[in-house]
Design brief:
Elements: E1 14-22, E2 27-37, E3 46-52, E4 65-69, H1 71-92
Antiparallel strand pairs: 1-2, 2-3, 3-4
C-alpha cells in the first residue's frame, strides 16, 4: 500500500485484513487496514478507520473511511462484534 493515507505501526489495530469494495457495477477484493483510535488528550470520540490497498483496486482513488463514534456507539459496536465472534466460535465447535 504505497499510497497509504493511514499510518500503520505497532499500535494499528489490524494491519492486514481481507476486504471487499462494492459499488453498483463492481466488486473488488483487496487487503485492508482497520484501526480503532481516539485522541491521546481530551478524547471526545472513537475513530474507526478503514483503508483498502489501492494497488489492486481500480475503481476508487486512494481514500480512507472513518467513523466517529461516541463512547456509547463504540460500546454498542463492540458488543455486536463480540456477539458475532461468539457465533463463529460456536459454529466451529
Amino acid at each position: 500500500m504505497t499510497d497509504r493515507l493511514m499510518k500503520v505501526n505497532a499500535y494499528t489495530t489490524l494491519d492486514l485484513v481481507d476486504a471487499v469494495a462494492r459499488g453498483q457495477e463492481f466488486e473488488t477484493e483487496a487487503f485492508a487496514v482497520a484501526n480503532a483510535t481516539s485522541d491521546k488528550e481530551n478524547p471526545d470520540c472513537v475513530r474507526l478507520q478503514f483503508e483498502l490497498d489501492n494497488m489492486t483496486e481500480e475503481h476508487l482513488p486512494a481514500h480512507m473511511e472513518e467513523l466517529e463514534l461516541t463512547a456509547d456507539q463504540a460500546r454498542t459496536l463492540a458488543a455486536d462484534l463480540e456477539k458475532h465472534a461468539d457465533r463463529i466460535d460456536d459454529a466451529e465447535e
